[in-house]
Input
Amino acid sequence: MAARAAVVTIADLGSRIPSGVLPGVPILGRAAARAGFQTAAFFANGWVDVGTGVLTGFEKIERRPSRQVLSRGVAWLEQERRRDVPFVLYLHWVDAHGEVHRKQKRREAAALPDRERRELVAEAPGGTCDDPAGEACLRYLSYEREIEIQRHDAAELLTFLQVHGLLDDTLVVLFSDHGEEFGEHRDEEARRGADPRGIYGLGH
Output
């Protein structure tokens, strides 16, 4: 007889959003602290605040703008990390999220080099850039720009770890909760029912 998988409830979204982590749920920072790791967290997402309990156990906790997450993390590695103990460093960017900093996103989309902009418009999915000056296209271009910035930041972090002899003994975990959609699944979504907001194919 096959074993039945245990079901663990980690939060109660019916009570408040963002919900706090329920008591008894294993938390990375708490486990790392118990094991003797030095811990630090630098994050831009306002939902990852101390009140949710997600960062319980972390010694250093700072909310920063996304553009400062990498530099603050690297500064911690260089200046505050104790060399005689292992570490857990949590970095959390958020600017690729579709609803964050809309005015900033429009500026970044407008600032793309002409050649890169033309290439992205030509490759845009689902008719997103049928109107290259339209809102949907600007959102798509800014999203692609943010993804590129975060790829660069990730590469910078890996390079730092390698140059300082840390990469071989460091487990690097890259996680994303979701992407943004720009028409890739419009037809499938339309088959599922009414679309009162007229946004099939756009969003999370």
Summary: The longest helix spans residues 135-163. DSSP finds six helices and five strands in the chain. The radius of gyration is 20 Å.
